[in-house]
Amino acid sequence: MTCNSYHPQTDRRRESRFVANAPATLLWDGVSEPVTILNISVFGALLDSAYVPPVGVRVTLIGDHLEVCGTVIWQGEDRCGLLFSRAVDPLAVIQEPFVRTTEPPITLHEVAPGRYG
């Protein structure tokens, strides 16, 4: 009787990955495709999209607090993995958007019961 032993693969990445779920745009060879950054690390990201480029294609990923070139290092159905050409700050990508106000605050006054103006 043969006994097989299976062990789960350990994640050998040197850098931590952060869950992102952030919208972005992927550009390559004149194509602009909306993507979702599912997770991101200092040197790479996992993207989800209806159409992803093939392995080996050079791309530019643009999102909030992010613009970086990279290479597609693996491709699956509706997903791909990128290796960035330089280090990025993943925490800047996943942080909550800043609230930006350009107008002075508005003060509401009750003009009738339950009505404000």
Radius of gyration from CA coordinates: 22 Å
Output the number of helix runs.
Answer: 1
Pattern of helices and strands: EEEEEEHEE
The mean pLDDT is: 81
Give the termini distance in whole angstroms. 83 Å
Give helix % range: under 10%
Q: Which of globular, elongated, flat, extended, rod-shaped describes the shape?
A: elongated
Low-confidence stretches: 4-10, 98-102
Going by helix content, strand content and strand pairing, the class is mainly beta
Give the biggest sheet.
Answer: 6 strands, antiparallel, barrel
- What strand line-up does the widest sheet have? 1-2-3-6-5-4
What is the count of β-strands? 8
Q: What percent strand?
A: over 45%
What can you tell me about this protein's structure?
- It is built from 1 helix and 8 strands, in the order E-E-E-E-E-E-H-E-E.
- The strands form 2 sheets. A 6-stranded antiparallel barrel has the order 1-2-3-6-5-4. A two-stranded antiparallel sheet has the order 7-8.
- A hairpin with a 2-residue loop joins strand 7 and strand 8.
- By secondary structure, it is mostly beta strands.
